[in-house]
Amino acid sequence: MAVVVRVVYCGAGYKPKYLQLKKKLEDEFPSRLDICGEGTPQVTGFFEVFVAGKLVHSKKGGDGYVDTESKFLKLVAAIKAALAQA
């Protein structure tokens, strides 16, 4: 069973950051994730990451981008927990 990872990002330029995160997560969890991205039609500053429906990372909430190993590992931990429940 795949874990759904949804990324809502600012459509005004954050798509490359989403694609980079998508690739890194797919490399970490091959064939275990269903990753979808949604670019907002207006400028929002969003880079919100949901794992199995739970908000795990929020740029608007002060987390910034997923640009450090510790931020990435926070997502990995949430995905591992969701996989354990699946």
UniProtKB/TrEMBL annotation:
The keyword Cytoplasm applies. It is found in: Cytoplasm. It comes from the Eukaryota. Signal peptide: none annotated. One of its GO terms (cellular component) is cytoplasm. Keywords: Antioxidant, Cytoplasm, Glutathionylation, Redox-active center, Selenocysteine. One of its GO terms (molecular function) is antioxidant activity. GO terms for biological process: erythrocyte differentiation; response to lipopolysaccharide; response to stress. Plays a role as a glutathione (GSH)-dependent antioxidant. May be involved in a redox-related process. May play a role in the myopathies of selenium deficiency. This is Selenoprotein W. The lineage of its organism: Eukaryota, Metazoa, Chordata, Craniata, Vertebrata. The gene is SELENOW.
